[in-house]
Amino acid sequence: MAAKSLLELQPETAGHYVLLSNIYANAGRWEDVAKFRNLMTQRRIKKIPGWTWIEVENMAYQFSVGDRTHPRSKEIYGMLKSLSTKLEMAGYVPDTNFVLHDVPGEDKLGILNTHSEKLAIVFGLIATPEGTPIRIMKNLRVCGDCLSHI
Q1: What does pTM read for this prediction?
Q2: Please, what is the average pLDDT of the chain?
Q3: Is the separation of the CB atoms in 14 and 48 below 8 Å?
C-alpha cells in the first residue's frame, strides 16, 4: 500500500500523516482517520497548526481557527456572522466537505465559520478605513469554502 511505503520512507513527516488522514476523512473512513491520528500521538508527531497573519497600521496580528484571544474578538465574530448571513442571502452555500472531522452538520458549520483567514479578513475590515486593501498571509493552504466565502 502506498501509505505504508510513504510512512516507511519518511516516518517523522507530519504532513504525510495529515494528508493520509484527510484522504480517509474525505472518504468517510473515520476508523482509518483515528488510526493515523493515534499513530501520530504514539510517535509524538505534531501537526503544523494553521495561522493567518494580517498587518494593520504597521502591526502584525495572528489568528488561528476559532481564535478568541484578540481584544476585539466579540466585534470580529459579530461582523463575521453578519457578513456570512448577507453572503448566504446572496447565494453563498457553506461547503462542509472541507471539514474533515466526524461531527454533526451544525458543528461543521461552526468550524467553517471560524477559520483563521475569515477572522483575519474581518479584523482587517473593522480595523482599517473603508476601501483599504486587505492582505493576509497563511502558512497553509486556504480551504475551498474560505475561497468561496472571501
Answers
A1: 0.78
A2: 87
A3: yes
